[in-house]
TrEMBL record:
<feature type="transmembrane region" description="Helical">
    <location>
        <begin position="92"/>
        <end position="117"/>
    </location>
</feature>
<feature type="transmembrane region" description="Helical">
    <location>
        <begin position="67"/>
        <end position="86"/>
    </location>
</feature>
<dbReference type="Pfam" id="PF00892">
    <property type="entry name" value="EamA"/>
</dbReference>
<feature type="transmembrane region" description="Helical">
    <location>
        <begin position="248"/>
        <end position="268"/>
    </location>
</feature>
<feature type="domain" description="EamA">
    <location>
        <begin position="161"/>
        <end position="288"/>
    </location>
</feature>
<keyword id="KW-0812">Transmembrane</keyword>
<feature type="transmembrane region" description="Helical">
    <location>
        <begin position="9"/>
        <end position="28"/>
    </location>
</feature>
<dbReference type="InterPro" id="IPR050638">
    <property type="entry name" value="AA-Vitamin_Transporters"/>
</dbReference>
<feature type="domain" description="EamA">
    <location>
        <begin position="9"/>
        <end position="140"/>
    </location>
</feature>
<feature type="transmembrane region" description="Helical">
    <location>
        <begin position="186"/>
        <end position="207"/>
    </location>
</feature>
<feature type="transmembrane region" description="Helical">
    <location>
        <begin position="159"/>
        <end position="179"/>
    </location>
</feature>
<dbReference type="InterPro" id="IPR000620">
    <property type="entry name" value="EamA_dom"/>
</dbReference>
<feature type="transmembrane region" description="Helical">
    <location>
        <begin position="34"/>
        <end position="55"/>
    </location>
</feature>
<keyword id="KW-0472">Membrane</keyword>
<protein>
    <recommendedName>
        <fullName>EamA domain-containing protein</fullName>
    </recommendedName>
</protein>
<feature type="transmembrane region" description="Helical">
    <location>
        <begin position="219"/>
        <end position="236"/>
    </location>
</feature>
<dbReference type="InterPro" id="IPR037185">
    <property type="entry name" value="EmrE-like"/>
</dbReference>
Amino acid sequence: MFGSDKEKGSIEMIIAMVLSGTIGYFVVSAEQSYWNVVFLRCVIGALCLLGYVLVTKQLTKEVFKGPVFMTILLGGIALVGNWVLLFASFDYIPFSISIIAYHLQPLMLVLLSAVLYRQYPSKAILLWLAIAVLGLWLVVGIPYQEIVAVIFAQESNQAVFGLLLALGAAFLYTITTLMTKKVSQVPSGVVAVIQIFFGGLFLLPWVDFAHFPETSSSWGNILFLGVVNTGFMYVIMYDAFQRLSTTLIAILSFIYPVVALFVDFIAFEHTISILQTLGIVLILTAVSAVKFDWKLGKLFNLRFG
């Protein structure tokens, strides 16, 4: 069905990023605290994943060997830590600024891979990443003056702390990605179920059990988050992590904010500005350039030759 691991991984990553772009809608519609939503998402997702790995007989003794299990567990701790830091950053800086700081994660992934594994990106890749980041800036729609005002306002210490929390979340997500790639011999469903199960345990102190959902619509949104946006999504996303280069993972990650923008437009009737449209074009151009290995020299010749 698929021509190569790269083709299958790319399709899986694109689907995962499209699903990621819908998470905000279901979180808002659930009408629960972030902690309750994430905890219930972990519980439901872990149960679905456990059923999946048991039915497919993927859970073997080899998974629980010391080095392999510890690598998976460290990735899980980083995954949950990334959620905690990101949500905490919302208390210190505007949501939009947190999101753009968090989505610098693809750059961190490329740079950390270069340092740890000597996977040095080409000049063309760095250019496309820079274009994608510029597109992200336009999509989020943060005026430069607003960022300056946040950082240099009287509450500058809190603002800087909030930025550090968001960047810390991005760094931890980068660690999760690299840890998942490191155990490519382990089925993606097994990696996901272990990480999400321990993630749920880690979140227990913050859960407000007295205010769990009381309506069927809230439970419906949370069930979708758990079954589709966790159980199914993490299987295909982790499989993509194990199949793709860090560069391609990084650039495909920019699909997420584009989808989130369209979800806002459709579900909450938020208008899409001309600058946001330009940002979408820049991101999709950068994604296509890396995915299809466009050569800058050839493009230049086509344009000016």
